[in-house]
Amino acid sequence: MCARHRDLLQRRGPDSSKELKQQSGSVYLTCFSTVLALRGDHTVIQPVQHSDYPDSFLCWNGEAWKYDSTPILGNDSEIVFASVSRLFANCAVSSSPSSIMQDALSHITGPYAFAYFDSKSDTLFFGRDPLGRRSLMYRVDENGSFTLSTISDSTEKGWEEVEADGIYSLNLGSFHESMQQKESSKPTCIPYLHSPNTVVSSASTHDTSASPLITSSPSVLKIEDLLRRSLDLRISNIPSHSQAVSSQIPASLAVLFSGGLDCTLLARLSHDTLDPSQPIDLLNVAFENPRVHRRPANTDSDGPWSPFELCPDRITGRASFAELQTTCPSRTWRFVAINVPYQEFLAHRAEVISLIHPHNTEMDLSIASALYFASRGQGVVLSENQEATSYTSEARVLLSGLGADELFGGYTRHDTAFRRHGFTGLLEELNLDVERLGKRNLGRDDRVLSNWARETRFPFLDEDLVSWAVNAPVWKRCGFGEDQTTLDSETGTLEPAKKVLRCLAWKLGMKNVAAEKKRAVGSVVDYFYQFTDNFYRFNSALVQPKWKSANRKEHTLSHKIMYKQSMQQVTEEGLWYPHTSYLQPHLPFLVSLSSGL
C-alpha cells in the first residue's frame, strides 16, 4: 500500500490504525484499518479479532443501529463480529458459508461496507448494505492481486465500486488456483435476503376517494413517527470529542444545510431529540463565481458587499435559519456561512477529483465540491452583535436530507413523468431513483464527506422509512393529481412535490419552509438546462448543447454526450464552476490478497 492510500485512510479514521498481515495456505492477506470512534464508551481497534475465533477478522465501516430489531447501545463493530463469528463457529459442516453470511447480515439494520475473513471456510466475504450507503471499491492489478478499499488511490488504474446487490465471497483456495493458472478469480455474489427498497405492493391506479394530503393525514403522522425514530437512532448518543478549537460551546451534530425543505425538516425534528443544551451547526456553502457575482451598480462602492450572499442556497439558508430560530427559540442554532472563493475552489479541485474516482463527470465534480467544502466545516458565524467570527465545526456527525427527493417526488422529472404518464409513470420513475441511489450517489458522496473525519447519516434512508415509502400509494407521498376542489384552504396551496413532507413542516410550525418552491433538479438535461448560464462555460472541446432547441430529443442527445465527457477532457480554458446543492466512513479499511506462486 502506497503512502498516499494510507494517508487517505488515516484522514477518515484518526482515532486508531492497525495493520494486519497473515497467511492462509499460499495466499497472503494484508489489512489496514483506521477508526473514527462514534459508538460506545471506548475505541475498538480494527480489524476486529478475538481469541475465540483465531485468524478470523472483521473490517466494519458502518453503523449497525439494530440487531434483530433491537437497538445496539454499545459498540456495534464488536457485536457484529461476535454475532457473525458465532454463526460460523456453530454451523453444520454441510452449511454453505455464503448462506451463513447472508443470514447474519439479514439481522442488521443500518449502513455498512464490510470485509470479513472466516478462517474455518478460508473465505473472504465483503459487500455494501442493500442501499449502498457506504463506499467500497475493488481492484485487480496486473499480477492478479485483489484489493478492497473504502477509498481508492486514483493514481492506480482499475478501481471499480462494489455493487450493492448482495454479499460477495472469494475462497482463498480457489483464488490461489486461479493465479497459478494465470486466470482472474471472480468473487461470487449471493443476493441479500431482503432489501428495504423492494416494492412489495404499491398501487399505481389512483384511489379517487382518497382525500388530499393535510397536516392530520395518516401518512403525514406516519412519516413524522418514522423520521423521529430514525433520528433517535442516529443522534441520541453521539459521544463528545471536543478539541477546544473555539471559545463557543462545541456542537456534536451538524446539518448539511441549504435551507431547503428536507434539511430544514431534519434540523427541526433534531431539536426535539437532541439534548436542549447542545447547539446544532447548520453548514451552508456558497461559491464565488467571478463571471456572475459582480458588485451591483446601485450599491455603495465603499460599503460592505458579499458575492456569497447572492447565492440561492445562502438566501434560502438564512431564511430557513431565521424560521428555525423563531420556531425553536430555546435552541442555539449556529449558521456557519462557508464561503468558497473561486481561487480556493481551484486549489482543491484536483483533490476532489481524486476522491470521487472512478466517477469522473462534470456533474460528479459539481456535487462533490459542495459536499467537500461543507463537510470541512470551516466558515464564519455571526455573534449577537453581528460581528463575523471564523469558526470550524467540531461536529463529527453530519445529517443529510438525501433520499427525500427520490422517495417523495421532489425532482422536476417526477412532475414531468406524472404529466406524461400519470401515476404509473411517476411510480416507475420513483422506484428507479431509489434503486440507483447506491450506484449514482452514495458511494461517491461517502468518499468525499468522510475526508474530514466526519460521518454523514441519512435519516430519510432508514430501512423502515424506505420500506414504508416505496410500498405506500404514491398519492400518500406527494400531491400530484389531487382534486383541486377539495383542497384544504391552507395546505392546499403547497406544491405537490414531496407534499407529505411539506404538510409535516407546516404541522411543526415551519410554514415558510413548507411553501418553499421546488428547486431540486434530477436529470442531466434539466440540470444543465437550468444552471448552465450561472455555473458553466464550456470550450470548443466539448459538445455545445442547443439549450433553446424546440426539439427536446435533439438537445437531450447533446446533454448526454456532454455528460459522458470526462473531467480530464476539460481544459483550463473551459472554466467549470459548481452548483451548491446537497445530495448525498466511520471505519475505513483496505484488504489486499496476493498469492505466493
UniProtKB/TrEMBL annotation:
InterPro entries: Asn_synthase, Asn_synthetase_domain, GATase_2_dom, Ntn_hydrolases_N, Rossmann-like_a/b/a_fold. PANTHER family: ASPARAGINE SYNTHETASE DOMAIN-CONTAINING PROTEIN 1. It comes from Aureobasidium pullulans. Residues 1-181 form the Glutamine amidotransferase type-2 domain. Keywords: Amino-acid biosynthesis, Asparagine biosynthesis, Glutamine amidotransferase. It holds the Pfam family Asn_synthase. GO terms for molecular function: asparagine synthase (glutamine-hydrolyzing) activity. This is Glutamine amidotransferase type-2 domain-containing protein. One of its GO terms (biological process) is asparagine biosynthetic process.
